[in-house]
């Protein structure tokens, strides 16, 4: 019997093709007891759901829109995603052992479950670590797994700076220019009312336009 021909789940007998369902799926009927069924491919279904889950987590696409594209309700989509949250995220550090980078970016993102601090290059994640807040010790847990780069870019937090001095003493520290702009905007606002405020804010905006040492 061909490998792709299922056995009857009622009596174990041989099954034969018996037309298709309204969705075009092949229907099978048992030659012995007459039970009818379809052959499900849970692996394909789970792969499709996981791709939708990754899209939801890594893009700005709303859950309602993803559900609408799949032709189901938001609550059904949320229920289908329930098992995806239980999948362990692979540790990316293993693929970068012994590799020295010119520049590494360090930053933390706060969620309802805690803080995720990440070490990354311009195009991929090197390592990550879950914590409650960005402490020196938590950054040390992150940095101890990575060879010291030439330059580390941070947001100015004391936790990351202290950890770099301990774990990567020879690494140069650069303040993230975008974070520096945000600090200035916090004091001047995006629409300063004074000439001095406008001049300072313009200097901050020019930080991200720097392309060389001159």
Q: Architecture of the largest domain, according to CATH?
A: 2-Layer Sandwich
Total strands: the figure is 8
Elements, N to C (H/E): EEEHHHEEEHEHEHH
Principal-axes geometry comes out as elongated
Q: How many helices in DSSP terms?
A: 7
Main sheet: strand order: 6-5-4-7-8
Task: Please bin the fraction of helical residues.
Answer: 25-40%
In total, the number of domains comes to 3
Cα-atom Rg, whole angstroms? Answer: 27 Å
The major beta sheet can be summarized as: 5 strands, mixed
Q: Report the β-strand fraction as a percent range.
A: 15-25%
**CATH topology (level 3) name of the largest domain:** Nucleotidyltransferase, domain 5
Name the CATH superfamily assignment of the largest domain. Answer: Ribonuclease H-like superfamily/Ribonuclease H
- Name of the top-level CATH class of the largest domain: Alpha Beta
Please give the structural blueprint:
Elements: E1 15-20, E2 26-30, E3 36-38, H1 42-58, H2 63-70, H3 74-80, E4 103-111, E5 114-120, E6 125-131, H4 136-143, E7 151-154, H5 158-167, E8 172-175, H6 177-188, H7 195-206
Parallel strand pairs: 4-7, 7-8
Antiparallel strand pairs: 1-2, 2-3, 4-5, 5-6
At a glance:
By secondary structure, this protein is of the alpha/beta class. The protein has helices spanning 42-58, 63-70, 74-80, 136-143, 158-167, 177-188, 195-206; strands at 15-20, 26-30, 36-38, 103-111, 114-120, 125-131, 151-154, 172-175. It is built from seven helices and eight strands; from the N terminus they run βββαααβββαβαβαα.
């Amino acid at each position: 019997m061909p490998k792709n021909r299922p056995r009857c789940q009622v009596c174990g007998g041989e099954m034969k093709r018996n037309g298709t369902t309204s969705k075009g799926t092949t229907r099978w009927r048992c030659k012995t007891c007459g039970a009818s069924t379809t052959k499900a491919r849970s692996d394909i279904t789970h792969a499709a759901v996981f791709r939708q889950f990754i899209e939801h987590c890594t893009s700005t696409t709303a859950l309602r829109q993803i559900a609408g594209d799949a032709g189901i309700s938001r609550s059904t989509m949320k229920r289908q995603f329930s098992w995806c949250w239980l999948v362990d995220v692979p540790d990316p550090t293993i693929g970068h052992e012994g590799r020295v980078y010119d520049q590494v970016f360090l930053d933390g993102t706060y969620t309802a479950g805690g803080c995720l601090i990440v070490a990354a290059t311009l195009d991929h994640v090197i390592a990550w670590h879950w914590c409650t807040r960005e402490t020196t010790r938590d950054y040390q847990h992150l940095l101890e797994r990575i060879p010291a780069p030439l330059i580390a870019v941070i947001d100015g937090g004391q936790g990351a700076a202290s950890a770099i001095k301990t774990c990567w003493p020879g690494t140069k520290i650069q303040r993230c220019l975008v974070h520096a702009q945000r600090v200035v905007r916090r004091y001047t606002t995006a629409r300063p009312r004074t000439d001095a405020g406008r001049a300072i804010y313009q200097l901050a905006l020019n930080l991200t336009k720097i392309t060389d040492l001159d």
